[in-house]
Amino acid sequence: MGISVHDSLELLPARECKVLYAAPILLVKHGVSEVGLLNVQAYLRCRKDELRKEAGIVKNFSVFDFSYIPAQPVMRDESKVLIDAILRYDHSGIPKNLAIFGSRGSGKTLMVRYLAKELRNETTLRILYANVRNHNTSFKVLTHLLKVQTRGASLDELFERFRQAHPVKTVVVLDEIDLMSAKDRQTEILYRLSRSRNNYMVVLLSNSPRLIHVIDPSARSTLQPEIVHFRNYDAEQIFQILLARAQQGLRWYEEEQLRQIAALTTRNTNSDVRVAIKSLFYTATEPNLAAEQAFDRASKDVVVDVIRDLNDKSLLILESARRTRSGFVKEIYQCYMRLSETHGEIPFSYMHFYNNLSYLQSCGLILLVSTKVARTYTNRIRLLFDPAIEAETYRQRFA
Fold first, then answer.
1. Which of 91, 227, 305, 363 is most buried (CB neighbours < 10 A)?
2. Could you tell me if 228 and 98 are in contact, meaning their C-beta atoms sit under 8 angstroms apart?
3. What whole-number distance in Å separates Cα of residue 258 and Cα of residue 280?
4. Domain identity same for 132 and 240
5. Mean pLDDT of 327-336
């Protein structure tokens, strides 16, 4: 009498899982289709058991979510500028607008979201948030902030509705402001917010240090934002972030491992704390994984996400950098011009192209290096990620 699929699964202990899917020939009596089914079912069962055991160290998975807001974020001097400006506005009603820039994972958005949460029940002040990547015109930002679907309404009508909906002291946070569509070059919403008699406070966030240059001069003259640089975390600050999350989310942990992840993150990823958090997640859920292995996997995951989120022009710049062996910026620009023409894209001028390089560097994707050639210095680009990742994204989007 043959052994049934169900009986076979019951008879196999977890330690024999690898034997099962490494050597299905042992169960060939069931036939090809049954063996295939058996292997899939056994793998599912064994992996469920393994993951259940591995995840036993985790008591709160939410701490590994990038949207998680810690009870006590790391305090830095640049955070004080943001906090003081919001509290003064709450007290006086006189806004002080801010333009905040810093690399990905430097804590800009986290601090804004933390303040919104903390101040919600302590003041009548409102903090509204919109990511320009997802709402890339003034019209789309307003419909998002109003939480309405509008058809046929003009921008004037929308802003009047916004003004009536938010008559009290309101902070409007526009994240990734440098991604505003070219169709909205005058960034009309900034002009209206800065001129409104409601005295709105505006906080602009960007990864690029040149964010102020994307703002229309007329809006810039009324906004007059103070520029704040959120510096990269140092290794000790990243360690403190990991320690807080480990204490909140894990049943046990090794401080030495946390310091190792912090050091790797600082040295290799432009201090992108998201990589550090994801590395911690991998070490917690796969105890046999070394810190270096977890870090390598986390780095790749984050890079894939960042590259997939790039707009077409930025992706074409990266593809041009990948194709240009010399790495010289001017040669990359010529390649970018040709690629843009091939794909029907209107290319950046050289000035805007160079500004975009600063943005890509702030994302941790490239490094601009000054190199001496003959008697002069020129800039070269070094890619900081596996080029195959970008090549696959380029192929999927433009093939």
1. 363
2. yes
3. 7
4. no
5. 96
